[in-house]
Structure prediction request, 923 residues.
Amino acid sequence: MAKRVAIVGTGQTFHKSHRPDVNGQELINEAVQRALADTNLTMKDIDVVLIGNMDHFEGINYVDCWSVDGSGGVMKPVIKLTTGGTTGASLAIGGYHMVGSGMFEKALIIGWEKNSESDTTGAITTAFDPIWDRQVFAGAISGLAAEAQAYMARYGASDRDGARVSVRDRKHAMNNPHAQLRKEVILEDVLASPMLADPIHLLDVCPRTDGACAVIMVSEDVAGKICSKPDWIWGTAARHSYAYLSDASFGRLTSMEKCAKEIFKKAGIKESRKEIDVIELYQPYSFAGLIWIEDMGIIGHGEAPQYVWDGNTDMGGELPINPSGGVISCNPIGATGLIRCAEAALQVMGKAEARQVPDVNFAVSTGFGGCFWTDMLLHGKNKPN
Amino acid sequence: MEKTKIFEGIEPMIYNSMINVPYSWWAGDTASKFFISLRDDKKIIATRCGKCRKVFIPPRKVCPTCFKENTEWVDVSDEGTLVSYSVARRQLASIPKDKKVPVIWGLIKLDGADTAMLHYLGEVNPGEVVIGMRVKAVFTELRTGGIRDISHFKPVR
Amino acid sequence: MDRAAIIGVGMTKIEANKNRETFADMAWEAVNKALNDAGMSIDDIDNVITTSSDFWDGRTISCMAVGDAAGAADKNTSCVEGDGTYGAFYGYVRTLSGSYKTTLVVGHSKGSQCISSLITNAAFDPIYERVLGLDMITACAMQANAYLNRTGLKPEHMAMVSVKNHRNALKNPMSQLPMNITVEDVLKSEMIADPLRKLDCSPVSDGCCAIVIAHESVASKFRQKPVWIRGLSFCTDSFFFGDRDLSRSNSLVEAAKAAYKMAGIEDPKMEIDVVELYDAFSYQELLWLEEMGMTAYGNAARLLEKGEFDMEGPLPVNPSGGLLAGHPVIAAGLYRIAEVVMQLRGDAGEHQVKKAGTGLAHGVNGLCGQSHCVWILDKER
Prediction:
């Protein structure tokens, strides 16, 4: 019989643009030690280790093998998942299946990146097919700009609407001691910041961060013994479609739409806007905070800008988004998707401190990567049926 | 794969590229201390676990067994025993340009350390290398703070 | 725990250079073969796990290249970076976690497209080791020396493995290097890194393999009689060579023990009928057989000489020819699983072994066998 799975603890580094005091292994170890301390478990209790990052950002092959001193994986099963930007979320989903199958009782899931050490654009460009796409593609930003342009053309939005999302997330980060960027910005700051790829300004996008995150997922058989309020995983979904840029439909994130439909249907959620209490959205740039919540089904197509301007997604609003400050306040790529999961877990467990949303029953965390891929998890206070 | 008529006579094309993804790796404080000691003092140092007392080379910030931070630093000898070795005869692409085959690597357990380290063996013919032989570190004149501040390990005769 | 079975396998021929095919072309071929073998359409597949390596493929997010060809376009999917046995392990747990009943696992690699020495050099620690310029071959030469030194064996003993596996490959149309060679031929071949000569080393090949894993509730609904997954486990040793004893393999001992325990196997050498293991280098077949408990440490060479591990012997090892006869890195472990499945089904054609009820498939990840994954498969439930 499959087991139900819960998150019982998390750990993160205090993410920074550069961590010259530690190498990659040592960075990983910080997050792992914090997660173990959070649960009062020791490495001996862990049955399987899942780890991931984007290889070309650290230049290390077989990272799962290389990192064992830091991850605690010596003489344990260790496995690496890697799916680009959404790696952290794919790892969370991986932990869920490892434990849910009944093969392992306690899983340690680690996402990390030492982005300061590499040429990010150079590395990301290698994601794209070398024969058809790589020579015309200029890093991640062009694809996102194309998406924003398409959305603006279809629904009459402007760069002010994107900027309002940045302002929100940067404000939320002030409550999060782990976030890298902890300085508020106002609308004018965002619009005045250098234009990277029309309509995306510098302050609309994520920084490069060194950081690691660890999450401990366990079987229902032991969750209650470790944590009084575990975060139950109600469902996972992923859509990684198309391999060539020309296949993408810019302006709508169809992968998000499909994941949300699948997860909400399985959980019996009919009105996500009312039933979801908080979302940690993998939002690599501000406009995603408008487009993708529509694709998630929270709000109708074209209605997100007004929904956001009305304060609904701010702390204290109807459906706070990114209480952690999200990806534009902090982005250690291999960890980022897992941080969304950890932050959602903290919300459900009531451990989110200054960034806590009150009375969380359901939370959603997402991952984004590759060519418009989505990974998604539904977190809940109660055990799923 | 079935070669259909459509592809008959079509020349397979190749696109060449050198993926250029430059890196610089932060060594971290632990490794930095080790390399500074090589560079400035020609001394090999290691970390010791406060709990299990194991001495690690390369030095570790955290003991992999006890999973606790290693706070003690100890000196280890520049002499040790050869645990195993490897001799390249073909000029493989990974071999640095300044090393011409035969290139000999050794896994060396220095006196005082509980783990062995990888490095080159030098001043010895491949046929003379024996597992268990005693070897000693030879430092380079110009040292920059890296593992090649040690030039190689030579046999102790 | 629920049970799962493998109900379809498909593989491309292993070749030195598939210069007319991309990663996606290979995946398309292997996946279609696996689906045909299973008597399924892609719609019968609930989720897809691809296995690839960003380093070996020269692209970050390497799974992007094969997702569509593997039928993942509108399905739940993910990617494991590591040997195919690890990808299949993730596929196995996804089949049992309650979300999906059928899982397609694909693994690919095109060794012809890269300089393998540089790729494997990148597995070394960038701060303490990489600049020394070791790669997989020179590292495994170091392990071979440690093994020979410890056991008192000679290069002739390693060479016997190469002779057997290349000879086995004569009966496997999918292998790259079927050859009739002698121990003298091996000892005369170019010395690459003492004691490893060219014929002691596997090539670095192009190939792709796919398998379909099904939950017990649907495993018998398709074309093939299911091959049951009785036990499986993986384990990773220390990273730095100096932290472990290179002449042994603790992580294989542990992985094998755990797999045997799950499978209820008490005496592997009596209860296992056929083995497909990861012989990237000739000495590895001897060392891995010993560490997985098929014979006492240092004794495998003696048994090999007696013919114990030949195709007609009591315990055939690598009847497919193994990696020495064709080595698409990453996919290699999936080929091992697929080969055992075919043996247990009686579908291995010319390289079919006589008695095949329970089989062992084995994969390796990392340098010098740092991490091992062991699968026990069975004809009977």
Remarks:
- The mean pLDDT of chain A is 91.
- Chain A touches chain C through 63 residues (CB under 8 Å).
- The first strand of chain A starts at residue 5 and ends at 12.
- Residues 235 and 378 of chain A are 5 Å apart (CA to CA).
